[in-house]
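User: Teach me something about this protein's shape.
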Amino acid sequence: MRISVCILTMALYPFLLLTAWAQPASAPSAKSGLDKATLEAYMRHLFAWGPQIQVKVGDPTPSELPGFYDVTVSASSGNAHVDQRFYISKDGYKIVQGTVYDIRRDPFASQAAKVRLEGPRLGQPDAPIVLVEFSDFECPFCKDEAMMLRSNLMKAYPNQVRLYFKDLPLDQIHPWARMAAIAGRCIYKQNADVFWLYHDWIYGHQSEITPQNLKAKVLEFAQGKPIDLMQLNRCLETRATEEEVAKSVAEAEVLQIHSTPTILLNGRPLTGRMSWEQLRSLIDFEIQYQKANASAACANEGNGCAVRLQTPGSAPEK
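Assistant: First, the predicted structure itself:
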């Protein structure tokens, strides 16, 4: 009897295999990317994320890509963190990684809209070209970029460009960067102009600073400046501005910025060290782009762009 059952099973095996293969896509047993455990396992295999990597799968949200959900997968290990954005089809089977562009919009508009235009600034507050620099006071490449920007930017574009400085201390490789950022914010809260003196000074003295002597060096720098030294010392002791630095770091995470130096030029990411000639070329390109867009917008109005003074008896604007 047992032999007969075994023979019957072997005879039916190809049929059972074909039947299982032919199951419809909606079968309950099918895996789905909308199942968090399934998606986490798939991501771990895709990126070779071992058990030492913590992975968190976000909830699916409506997407700008028709037929897909938007899902963020976060991976972290120690201080290192990365967010990966995926589009998952509504049946749960297809996964797309990439950026969705809308031909009707500036490709960098959504990135620019996420930036908080606050904190240390150079240039006019209404300048049309906005540079947002994420930097680390201990980073040697940031030092080179800082010197390049300070030497050239405001001289070349006094009214067209504004620069915002953002802190992104890389704690895992730069042990005194966060405390230097906290000190910079302490100074900025007292005197915005002195912050830029501090900015130049600390980059210029990178090689002399250690975690042990940072506080003493900062207080030495502040001597003779329009700064209340007792208030600065108290701010350093209590790390009173650490939350502001943390907000800047969190903003970088939202913008998917994980390295320094990084500049956003009206939302366009520029990563790594670059020459003044390269940056100037990109700024000029953006200026021309804005002018062309303004001209096109005026042309679409039909009568051109003008401010007209209403006079008695004239026809109202429609």
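Now, about its shape. Confidence is low (pLDDT under 50) at residues 1-29, 305-318. The beta strands are 54-57, 61-62, 68-77, 80-89, 95-96, 121-122, 129-135, 161-167, 262-265, 268-271. If you'd like, I can walk through any region in more detail.
User: That's plenty for now, thanks!
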